[in-house]
Write a structure and sequence with these properties.
- The protein has 546 residues and is mainly α.
- Helix content is 69%, strand content 4%.
- Strands 1-2 form a two-stranded antiparallel sheet.
- Helix 7 runs antiparallel to helix 8, helix 13 packs parallel to helix 15 and helix 24 runs antiparallel to helix 25.
- It is globular and about 100 Å long.
- The termini are far apart.
- The N terminus and C terminus are likely disordered.
Length: 546
């Protein structure tokens, strides 16, 4: 008698087709019977524990065999799983949706949410229109998903139409819809409309405040973001700032160098036990860097456990902007050693650092290594190399680099070259570059001013006057400079010849009184002999008790 292994091998090599057919038939009957014993709640339980696409498809097959293929509740669960699993696939989600004859609002919302998160975003709007035509009424969960898709496309007109639909449905004052409208208008750069919706929300939650603060910060209204942040803290709201609040307000602190708010946020993070993740940590590093506190920025960097590319970029930028080029390069080596791949922003920071430090050789090496890390060289990188060469005085090499580079020359590149001409006082080359910039960037007054200053330094007053006249005729104005001071957690700005401040009369009166005091003190010093000590002239003054 043949051994058991040989019998099995013989069966596999020369199978009995009838025997195999019986096995398959019996197995399929058992599979069908097991599937039929389960109900929709069992499949919901199984789907909740699925993570991979293969497992979801396996349970999907059981649902069809069990006769639940047209169940709208399970269909919505399958759509959500296909859209939110580890490898999301909207094609499979759409197939499930299209096969369901009856669709309730929950199912419509799930497919719209999938497209709003993964795209194509326009499909989310198309599905919403199909939902309206089918007669299913949109609810408080529908509008946030569709508005999110509109915000991603920055389609203000369609978003406004959705706002109108929400008003007609009586949902415009709903908290969920209101928060979505605040975020939508902010993404479309309509910060005034965003604030009006925010003010109309009667009972705001933490999402309302976070959306409005973030909207201000993203749209450059950093002062308004800080003011609203203070209102949230001092206005008696029941909500304490969370991670999202701090991440939203930190860019405003960084742009205005608001160290008081930044220190408060850092202290609040420590006391509240909020995890210092990459988003929060990178915001703190940027804030400390802009305030000139490099040691504090480095302390935050060292405390972040899971550093992503954004965190590394911020610390490299921190050292670079303060002239610590060697440390910035060491941090870059640390980034490579951590196993992360640098991106184009990292190389921009490094090239700028090398440019300001005069490290031409190191900068050129970095530029050549970009391809080794799979980073594509964009026009901004070529402009940085031109600035690197130009600042160091290699104007001829910079011009040759421009002629031989594979990308089209743009205004950033010629702007860097014009700045180098200004540094090294090369008027002939500056005139040639300026003529190109007047075509590429005609409304930038800074380009004209650089050439005007060069003419005036060289005593070419007629050329300088002609250029200033051209600026006036074309109505091209340079943005006015301003000073800023923080007082009572409010940033006050004063521009050139600016009289718009509400306390201007009091300010000018105080300045006049200070001038008078200084003049009186100067008159007191008149007639006193001066004692020269270490090359500093100091008046000899005798003090009395008076």
């Amino acid at each position: 008698m043949l051994p058991m292994r040989a019998q099995i091998l013989g069966l596999l090599v020369k199978p009995n087709l009838l025997f195999l057919a019986r096995i398959i038939f019996t197995s399929s009957r058992c599979f069908v019977s097991m599937a039929s014993l389960r109900n929709s709640y069992d499949y919901t339980y199984l789907l909740q524990r699925c993570k991979g696409t293969k497992t979801i498809k396996s349970i999907h097959a059981q649902i069809i065999i069990g006769g639940f293929g047209e169940n709208p509740f399970l269909g919505a669960k399958l759509v959500g799983k296909y859209a939110q699993c580890q490898e999301p696939n909207m094609e499979d989600a759409r197939k499930v949706f299209d096969c369901l004859p009856e669709r309730d609002a929950f199912l419509w919302n799930m497919i719209i949410q999938g497209y709003a998160n993964l795209g194509p975003f326009l499909e989310a709007l198309n599905i919403y229109e199909d939902m309206r035509r089918s007669g299913v009424a949109a609810n408080r969960y529908t509008f946030p998903f569709v508005l999110k898709a509109c915000g991603a496309m920055k389609d203000g007109k369609k978003g406004q139409a959705l706002h109108g639909h929400a008003v007609r449905c009586g949902l415009d004052l709903d908290l969920f819809v209101g928060n979505a409208l605040v975020a939508f208008y902010a993404k479309c750069n309509e910060i005034g409309a965003s604030r009006r919706v925010f003010d109309m929300i009667s009972e705001k939650d933490i999402v309302s405040w976070n959306s409005m603060i973030s909207g201000y910060a993203v749209n450059g209204c950093v002062d308004s973001a800080l003011v609203l942040f203070h209102e949230m803290l001092q206005g008696g709201t029941m909500y304490a700032p969370d991670n999202a609040t701090l991440v939203a307000v930190l860019p405003a602190c960084a742009q205005t160098a608001a160290i008081q708010e930044g220190l408060w946020i850092h202290m609040y993070v420590i006391k509240s036990g909020i995890e210092l993740d990459a988003a929060l940590g990178s915001g703190l590093i940027a804030m400390y860097a802009n305030c000139g506190r490099l040691s504090s920025a480095r302390d935050v960097f060292d405390q972040i456990n899971h550093k992503n590319i954004v965190v590394w970029n911020e610390i490299i930028r921190c050292y670079g902007m303060h002239g610590h080029a060697d440390e910035a390069l060491r941090m870059f080596s640390g980034l490579i050693g951590s196993g992360l791949q640098p991106d184009g922003i990292i190389f921009l920071c490094l090239l700028s650092t090398c440019s300001h430090a005069g490290m031409v050789k190191e900068g050129m090496k970095l530029f050549e290594k970009m391809g080794d890390y799979g980073v594509e060289k964009a026009s901004e990188h070529y402009a940085s190399v031109v600035d690197l060469l130009g600042r160091a005085g290699f104007l001829h090499e910079a011009c040759e680099f421009v002629k031989n580079m594979p990308v089209k020359s743009g205004k950033e590149l010629y702007g860097a070259l014009l700045g180098a001409c200004r540094i090294h006082n090369n008027i002939e080359l500056a005139e040639e570059i300026a003529e190109k910039l007047f075509v590429l960037d005609p409304d930038n007054a800074g380009r004209y001013i650089i050439l005007v200053k060069m003419y005036e330094d060289a005593g070419k007053w007629e050329k300088a006057a002609r250029l200033r006249k051209a600026l006036k005729e074309k109505n091209i104005r340079k943005p006015l400079g301003y000073s800023a001071i923080e007082l009572g957690c409010v940033l006050h700005q004063f521009g050139v010849e600016d009289e718009s401040h509400p306390f201007k009369d009091l300010i000018f009166d105080t300045l006049e009184r200070l001038d008078n005091i200084m003049e009186e003190e100067l008159r007191l010093f008149d007639g006193f002999p001066l004692l020269e000590t270490n090359a500093i002239l100091t008046p000899i003054v005798t003090t009395t008790n008076n």
